[in-house]
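Here is the promised in-class demo. Please do not try to memorize the tokens; focus on the logic of going from shape to residues.
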């Protein structure tokens, strides 16, 4: 059985501005991942996957499966 909400309550729950705040509070992303990028390696463009975390950046070649990791301590961001 459906609960009986007043029209005002229904409008409040259906408004868009409430949704992003709830989503941003509930979701915590530990990494960013891109599955379809291209990297230039030795002058050739190769299909790769890229994953970035607080600790490292990981490149994975889609054709060969070779994985290359760069640690956060090895990067200088200025």
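The designed amino acids, position by position:
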């Amino acid at each position: 059985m459906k609960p009986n909400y007043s029209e005002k309550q229904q409008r409040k729950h259906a408004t868009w501005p409430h949704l992003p705040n709830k989503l941003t509070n509930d979701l915590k992303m530990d990494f960013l991942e891109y599955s379809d990028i291209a990297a230039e390696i030795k002058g050739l463009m190769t299909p790769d996957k890229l994953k970035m975390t607080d600790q490292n950046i990981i490149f994975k070649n889609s054709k060969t499966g070779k994985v290359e990791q760069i640690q956060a301590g090895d990067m200088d961001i200025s």
